[in-house]
Amino acid sequence: MKIVGRIAQTVAALWILNVWFNRFNKDTGYRGGGATNMQEEFEEYGFSKNQMYAVGAAKVSLATLMLAGHAVPKLVRPASTGLAMFMVGAIGMHIKVKDPIKRSMPAITVLTLSTVSALLADGRD
């Protein structure tokens, strides 16, 4: 089970880094409302540009801590739990703007991965 947790930890973290660094200005088909990039998506949800960057910094930091958790295992559970909470919020935002379930699937997937990572984390390694 330990390897499942580590895979979930790695995939969730890399997924978040990919979204915030490689797909930030791209229309992915999963953006909320009618948004075609990250800034438009946050506007759809009623957030400011500064709030978008704060959320992004928090998610990127948590993802980085999850990856660092391969070397420092005690980081995994809190970072994964934090990311899972952000994903619950992301799903809530998709519901707020009445998106079809398809647009919530990436958030649901990262929520699942980060939850598995948190549950299977072993901070004693």
Notes on the protein architecture:
With 125 residues, the chain is mostly helical. Helices cover 71% and strands 0% of the residues. The chain has 5 helices and no strands. The protein starts with a helix and ends in a 5-residue tail after the last helix. The mean pLDDT is 95.
Kindly summarize this structure in a few lines:
By secondary structure, the chain is mainly α. The protein is 71% helix and 0% strand.
Provide the gyration radius in Å. 14 Å
**Number of separate strands:** 0
Mean of residue pLDDT?
A: 95
The proportion of residues in beta strands is under 5%
H and E string: HHHHH
**Termini separation:** 14 Å
Biggest sheet character: none
Derived structural class: mainly alpha
Q: Helix coverage percent of residues? A: over 70%
Low-pLDDT segments, ≥5 res: none
Number of helices: 5
Shape: elongated
Which tags fit this structure?
125 residues; mainly alpha; 71% helix; 0% strand
Topology:
Blueprint: H1 2-21, H2 38-45, H3 49-68, H4 76-96, H5 101-120
Helix pairs in contact: 1-3, 1-5, 3-4, 4-5
